[in-house]
Specification:
7-stranded antiparallel β-sheet, globular
Length: 372
């Protein structure tokens, strides 16, 4: 099975040997996903890549290209508040259709630095071309359809809330290209490439600090540079799912949040609400998962060790510590106390500690648990 052939780089001896002594000790390791066609062959690597990014894109081989000839070398790190990855691949087309937007449960901005190769396509209805050295940004609440040559890019997946706070209208970033000849682009590119070199040697604490610094630099540069947005580009309204999901995230800590209140807030029937959330397991389960994810990240944060478990439970809408503990254990497989003591994010996806749970499924879950 694929899980047996794809290495979880966070557990590899070779990576631990490259870490400073203080990072190699104990459990202070950054969860990392890796797949390489050199290890498993083109068809298996492509299948794993497709499964890992299924919430983001459908990956389509260009015409007259066989899976046997496909090559890739992919590494990605979960930094709690963002995902960072190095993606080297043969030519691929990527499709983020309207139904994938509605059903993926993602509310993020994708930032990519293209080191090699180029792509063309459409961001919503806007033509876009990106070449080597360019930095591009995409709103995951919008559609995207691109075809890339053989490429190597460094990518961030960042929760929208960081951009809304630091840039303003994050939706306006969809399809923005910062050309390689701009000073701001060179500044960001230098930092991003340095982070890619250093990240394998960082422990979880340093990686969390690097994530905060990265977001600050990114939003600062974007907030001050001229993005040359088209004047005729209409503002998009979020899909019903995205609008309600944002409402749930804003009110997840309110113990009174329940389907009836949400339906009333959006002037829809409960039946309509249930139908909208049926593809992601139902609205009640979605609320519970968002609360547990928020609590999990609070427990893992450096200052989370100074908070009582009960305080975190109440903050995320749970009636008491016992109810929270049972829900947390059922969802993540460990207790809140164990999660706090691990000082890592590997437990953020249900079953993440299960060796039979494929790494590419964990990667997909990482994307869905990222939040500010």
């Amino acid at each position: 099975m694929l899980a047996a052939t794809i290495r979880d780089r966070a557990d590899e001896d070779t990576v631990r040997q490259n870490r400073p002594p203080e990072a190699a000790a104990g459990e202070d390791r950054v969860p990392t996903f890796m797949v390489s066609s050199a290890d498993v062959g083109g068809p298996a690597a492509l299948a794993s890549y497709r499964q890992a990014v299924d919430s983001v894109f459908a990956c389509i081989l260009p015409d007259r290209t066989s899976e046997a000839d496909y090559t890739c070398d992919i590494m990605a790190w979960h930094l709690g508040t963002l995902m960072f990855g190095s993606f080297r691949s043969s030519a691929l087309c990527f499709d983020r259709s309207a139904d994938r937007v509605a059903m993926s449960g993602m509310d993020h901005i994708l930032v990519q630095l293209y080191l090699e190769g180029r792509f063309t396509g459409r961001a919503d209805d806007r033509p876009i071309t990106v070449g080597s050295g360019d930095i591009c940004l995409f709103d995951m609440c919008a559609t995207l359809d691109t075809c890339a040559s053989d490429f190597h890019n460094l990518s961030f997946m960042v929760p929208r809330a960081f951009f809304d706070a630091g840039v303003g209208d994050a939706a306006a970033l969809h399809g923005v290209v910062l050309s390689a000849d701009r000073p701001q682009t060179a500044l960001l590119a230098d930092y991003i490439t340095a982070l890619a070199r250093r990240l394998p040697m960082l422990g979880a604490r340093d990686a969390e600090a690097a994530a905060s610094a990265t977001i600050l630099l990114l939003t600062t540069v974007l907030g001050t540079c001229d993005r040359s947005q088209p004047v005729d580009r209409p503002r998009r309204d979020p899909s019903p799912f995205r609008a309600i999901a944002l409402y749930i995230d804003r009110h997840a800590g309110d113990a009174a949040l329940e389907p009836g209140r949400i339906a009333a807030a959006f002037n829809i029937s409960r039946a309509t609400l249930y139908r909208i959330f049926e593809p992601v397991g139902g609205v009640s389960d979605y609320i519970r998962r968002r609360r547990l994810t928020g609590a999990a990240i609070d427990l893992a944060a450096i200052d989370g060790r100074r908070r009582k478990v009960a305080e975190i439970a109440y903050r995320w809408g749970f009636a008491n510590e016992a109810t929270f503990g049972r829900a947390f254990k059922a969802h993540f497989g460990i207790t809140p106390g164990m999660a706090r003591n691990q000082q890592q994010r590997t437990w953020l996806a249900k079953g993440c500690g299960d060796p039979d749970n494929a790494p590419e499924r964990r990667f997909d879950a990482w994307l869905k648990t990222l939040r500010k």
